TrEMBL record:
Similarity-based family: Belongs to the SfsA family.
The encoding gene: sfsA
Organism for this UniProt entry: Megasphaera micronuciformis F0359
Domain of life assignment: Bacteria
Positions of the SfsA N-terminal OB domain: 13-77
Database matches in CDD domains: SfsA-like_bacterial
Residue intervals of the Sugar fermentation stimulation protein C-terminal domain: 82-203
GO MF: DNA binding
Full protein name: Sugar fermentation stimulation protein homolog
């Protein structure tokens, strides 16, 4: 199905920006183009196996393209340019349940100012279809998107408006993880997309479908359609919950913190775990500001540290203490002067950036996704 140049296997080193990664191949570090703008925290760990291909364009600054990466021994497709090829093949081969009587008419079809990936037809009936690649997984679940996508939200609204006019429209989420059994929009990362999806889902003909790849990324094995636990989305997508702020400190500092207590802060990264009962979105948006008159402990930390990343856990449950305990268990230490309402540590030290540290990301995955499986049967 997919034709490409010979693939080379290497080890992931780092990702200096969204579209560039460094990979070690045969003891040589090469610069590669990453054709996937997603956050990919759950996949890009130092030393992880990646597959790349050499580009044929002479003089290009990035002589390799990344095709895929390994998670738990399973190849995962990262190159989003293959999405339409895969979707078209699955539809032509009648692999998607409920769409067996539809055929592909055209690709990259424009309508009313938008462009959608596939146009299907069944006789004279038309079906506008958008294809999305899903690379955010847990043990048994999948979520989309893994980064805020205003474009994706607009697609939902336009597809829904087409349906209101009597035109069939939908989305195919290609889940690159054959162990997944359920799918939800990622309301932790993009609550606006999730809310729009929840509103439009009943109008649209959409499916989340798994595929499995071999290590030459030439032919996917069709998997199964995933369940949609809508009641979990309705329960959990609230403007409240827990959050992690990841700070970076460039050099050692001795600073006064809570209640005039002084602490020696070592250079590195610090993760603060907090929670709010309401207005989580507003709380998150203010975490990067430097305030002239600090009020919260996060305001004081921001005076001498930079905010590297912020991760929200939207939930109706109280999970702050559980999350802090999990983060503490994988950290390199904690700041005793800074505690939560329960008197336990809530600011943890990491020598390296925790978003590239698998135990920390697994703790985040557990509290965001794996925990949800106690709320429904699958």
């Amino acid at each position: 199905m997919i034709r490409h140049e010979k693939l080379f296997k290497g080890r992931f080193i780092d990702r200096p920006n969204r579209f560039i990664v460094h990979v070690e191949i045969d003891d040589e570090t090469v610069t590669c183009h990453l054709p996937n703008p997603g956050r990919l925290w759950e996949l890009l760990y130092v030393g992880t196996t990646v597959w790349v291909r050499k580009v044929l364009t002479p003089g290009r600054k990035t002589p390799y393209d990344v095709i895929g990466i390994e998670r738990d021994g399973i190849p995962v497709l990262l190159d989003t340019q293959y999405n339409n090829d895969v979707a078209e093949a699955l539809i032509r081969e009648k692999r998607i349940p409920g769409w067996e009587d539809w055929d592909v008419l055209r690709r990259e079809v424009a309508i009313e100012g938008s462009r959608f990936d596939l146009l299907l037809h069944r006789g004279d009936d038309l079906f506008f279809l958008e294809v999305k690649s899903c690379t955010l997984f847990s043990k048994n679940g999948a979520m989309f998107p893994d980064a805020v996508t205003e474009r994706g939200r607009r697609h939902l609204l336009h597809l829904s408006s087409l349906r209101d006019k009597g035109i069939r429209a939908g989305i195919l989420f290609l889940v690159q993880w054959n162990r997944a059994r359920w799918f939800l929009p990622d309301y932790h990362t993009d609550p606006d997309f999730a809310e729009t999806f929840e509103t439009c889902a009943d109008k649209l003909d959409w499916k989340a479908f798994t595929v499995e790849w071999n290590d030459d990324f030439s032919e996917p094995t069709p998997g199964c359609e995933l369940m949609y636990p809508q009641a979990v989305l309705e329960r959990e997508n609230r403007d409240r919950g827990t959050y992690a702020v990841i700070y970076c400190l460039e050099e050692d500092r001795c600073e006064f913190v809570k209640a005039g207590k002084k602490h020696d802060f070592k250079a590195g990264y610090y993760v603060y775990i907090g929670a709010v009962e309401e207005n989580l979105k507003a709380r998150l948006s203010g975490l990067r500001r430097v305030r002239k008159k600090p009020v919260q402990i996060t305001d004081y930390l921001r005076l001498f540290m930079t905010v590297s990343s912020v991760a929200a856990v939207r939930t109706s449950d109280t999970v702050e203490a559980e999350f802090a305990s999990c983060v503490g268990n994988v950290s390199d230490g904690f700041v005793p002067a800074i505690t939560g309402d329960d008197g336990k540590p809530c600011l943890f030290y990491f020598k390296e950036n925790p978003v590239h540290y698998k135990p920390f990301i697994e703790a985040l995955e557990d509290i965001r996704m794996n925990r949800l499986e106690t709320l429904f049967d699958f």
